[in-house]
């Protein structure tokens, strides 16, 4: 298919399959900036969401945002560029923060942005033997963060290289235990193919609902995925949960987690500053947030919550402890700009885990 494994080119040896695989069809580079909220009215879509935009719109936003950037004494630069994408954030968090081996299935383009993605993920110990390198552009996303830490995301995926459904093989999934997915209508075919192959290899499948716009605009394909019975774990935030139950008489977070639990073994709804609610079997738990008093940037909060929760799931701890691990992990990333946890903030998380008596990862930091 005109693709080659990046790990071969860079001589990366991976003797054992990663425990967790993340399907991110297109490698992604994030441009994260703190901006005045007035800037958000000049870009397409609603503030707070995540809708795809064209290359020209990304270039326009990047040009214009410099005049709306907010400075802060806490940051050397109000703009950061890093490897990104929801699934990549979760897998990187599992690897670098929790010592759980993780790998990425996807594709990146040639050139500077593709190399940036590769080197950042590789530096964090992520298995890239399933990341294909292709001729073309690497996907980008502009993440605009207001003074309150709320983020508005505008990904540009349409012209980027991606792994196709027919490129996936059972060998990609063999020996792994869990597949992490993010719902996206543009990737529906490859998502469906990945789920089928993952199930043939006995993997659990975790699905994140992505954004309230994605749920609102493409609800029926999402419901088909859930109704298939192949989604073992589903993560939704409060806005996504509201969209999922729009039109229902009771559309609160409890109703949403009950709805998801009809189809998934584990159902989780994150509630920002109010923590999370989760259900497994007949058990429902509600766990408060951690670190919400110091929100610099909400980018990656849900992704890193998933890292902590999945770490707990892999280690076999209780549902409540999985949620507590998730809130500690999610609380760590919101303390600085972007979806990558800094060394200092990992240390903050470990301290919170110790205070709460949670299972510590076997990792040296």
UniProtKB/TrEMBL annotation:
Residue ranges constituting the Carbohydrate kinase PfkB domain according to the UniProt record: 74-339
Any GO MF annotation of the entry: kinase activity
Matching CDD domains: adenosine_kinase
Keyword Transferase: yes
Keyword line: Kinase, Transferase
Segments traversing the membrane: none
Pfam families, per the entry: PfkB
Domain of life, per lineage: Eukaryota
Keyword Kinase part of the UniProt annotation: yes
InterPro entries xrefs: Carb_kinase_PfkB-like, PfkB_dom, Ribokinase-like
PANTHER family: OS01G0105900 PROTEIN, SUGAR KINASE
Family: Belongs to the carbohydrate kinase PfkB family.
Name by which UniProt lists this protein: Carbohydrate kinase PfkB domain-containing protein
């Amino acid at each position: 298919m005109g693709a080659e494994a990046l790990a071969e080119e860079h001589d990366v040896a991976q003797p054992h399959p990663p425990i967790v695989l993340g399907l991110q069809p297109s490698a992604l580079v994030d441009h994260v900036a703190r901006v005045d909220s007035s800037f958000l009215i000049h870009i397409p879509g609603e503030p707070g969401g995540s809708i795809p935009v064209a290359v020209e719109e990304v270039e326009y936003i990047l040009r214009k945002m410099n005049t709306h950037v907010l400075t802060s004494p806490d940051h050397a630069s109000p703009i950061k560029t890093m490897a990104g994408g929801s699934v990549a954030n979760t897998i990187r968090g599992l690897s670098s923060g929790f010592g759980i081996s993780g790998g990425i299935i996807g594709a990146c383009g040639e050139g500077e942005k593709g190399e940036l993605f590769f080197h950042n993920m590789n530096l964090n110990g992520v298995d890239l033997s399933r990341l294909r390198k292709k001729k073309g552009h690497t996907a980008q996303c502009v993440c605009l963060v207001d003074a309150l830490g709320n983020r508005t995301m505008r990904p540009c995926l349409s012209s980027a290289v991606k792994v196709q459904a027919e490129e996936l093989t059972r060998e990609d999934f063999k020996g792994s235990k869990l597949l992490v997915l993010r719902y996206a209508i543009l990737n529906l075919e490859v998502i469906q193919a990945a789920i089928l192959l993952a199930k043939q290899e006995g993997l659990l499948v975790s699905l994140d609902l992505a954004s309230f716009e994605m749920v609102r605009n493409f609800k029926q394909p999402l419901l088909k995925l859930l109704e298939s019975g192949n989604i073992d774990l589903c993560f939704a935030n409060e806005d996504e949960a509201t969209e999922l139950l729009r039109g229902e008489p009771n559309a609160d977070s409890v109703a949403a987690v009950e709805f998801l639990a009809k189809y998934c073994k584990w159902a989780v709804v994150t509630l920002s500053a109010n923590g999370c609610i989760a259900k497994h079997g007949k058990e429902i738990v509600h766990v408060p947030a951690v670190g919400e008093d110091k929100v610099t940037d909400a980018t990656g909060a849900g992704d890193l919550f998933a890292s902590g929760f999945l770490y707990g799931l892999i280690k076999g701890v209780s549902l409540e402890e999985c949620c507590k691990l998730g809130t500690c992990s999610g609380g760590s990333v919101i303390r600085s700009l972007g979806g990558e946890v800094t060394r200092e903030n990992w240390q903050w998380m470990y301290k919170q885990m110790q205070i709460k008596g949670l299972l510590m990862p076997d990792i040296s930091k």
